[in-house]
């Protein structure tokens, strides 16, 4: 039985700004993900605030939302068996300094805030985040 699943991935402004989006997409493809939806957009700060609402009590919330809306991002729906966990593994730890060798954040992340990629953290949140960006 296949357990094909969808997750939401975002290539964040720091990576798009350095023209790393093609390279990062190729990493997903090389690791068996299908990119089933994709768009390049720039968020309004109010959209970033909605997207990151779970973090609204955190001290870094305002900076986080300002950052995510500071430039173009590439938003994708990725498909793979156990896509949510597989993507979290491939991304690496939130802080690039703590991320394992071979992970996207280890390779490209600049700092804990400019860590190049977002990935849904559960199947439930994946559905919510995919709807947020791709609901018609
Ligand atoms: P995640 O992206 O690995 O799921 P979360 O804890 O959900 O990490 O945090 C969302 C984003 O908020 C992170 O990717 C990072 O950009 C930012 N962030 C998390 N913790 C900190 C912090 O302590 N200082 C600054 N930014 C942070
Ligand atoms: Mg998270």
Description:
With about 140 residues, the protein is α+β, with helices and mostly antiparallel strands. The chain has a single domain (about 5-135), classed as Nucleoside diphosphate kinase-like domain (Alpha-Beta Plaits). Helices cover about 40% and strands about 20% of the residues. The protein has seven helices and four strands. It has helices at about 15, 20-30, 45-50, 60-70, 85-90, 105-110, 125-135, and strands at about 5-10, 35-40, 75-80, 115-120. The chain has a four-stranded antiparallel sheet with strand order 2-3-1-4, sandwiched between helices. The N and C termini lie far apart (about 30 Å). The mean pLDDT is about 95. The structure holds inosine-5'-diphosphate (IDP) and magnesium ion. Inosine-5'-diphosphate binds near residues 55, 60, 112, 113 and 121. Inosine-5'-diphosphate (IDP) binds near residues 64 and 94.
| Helix and strand sequence | EHHEHHEHHEH
Discrete helix count = 7
Task: Return Rg in Å.
Answer: 14 Å
Strand order of the largest sheet: 2-3-1-4
* Strand-pairing-aware structural class: alpha+beta
**First-to-last CA distance:** 30 Å
Largest pleated sheet: 4 strands, antiparallel
Strand content: 15-25%
CATH superfamily: Nucleoside diphosphate kinase-like domain
The CATH architecture is: 2-Layer Sandwich
| Number of structural domains | 1
CATH class: Alpha Beta
CATH topology: Alpha-Beta Plaits
> Which regions contain 5 or more consecutive residues with pLDDT less than 50?
none
Mean pLDDT: 97
Please estimate the helix content. 40-55%
Record field, number of beta strands: 4
Ligands (ions, cofactors included): inosine-5'-diphosphate, magnesium ion
Outline type: globular
């Amino acid at each position: 039985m296949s357990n094909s699943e969808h997750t939401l991935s975002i290539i964040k402004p720091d990576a798009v700004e350095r023209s790393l989006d093609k390279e990062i997409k190729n990493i997903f493809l090389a690791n068996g993900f299908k990119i089933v939806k994709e768009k390049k957009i720039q968020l309004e700060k109010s959209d970033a605030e909605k997207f990151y609402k779970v973090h609204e009590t955190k001290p870094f919330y305002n900076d986080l939302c300002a950052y995510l809306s500071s430039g173009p991002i590439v938003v994708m729906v990725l498909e793979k068996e156990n896509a949510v966990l597989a993507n979290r593994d491939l991304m690496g730890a939130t802080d690039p300094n703590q991320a394992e060798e071979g992970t996207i954040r280890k390779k490209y992340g600049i700092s804990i805030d400019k860590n190049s990629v977002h990935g849904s953290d559960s199947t439930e949140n994946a559905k919510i985040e995919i709807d947020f960006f791709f609901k018609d």
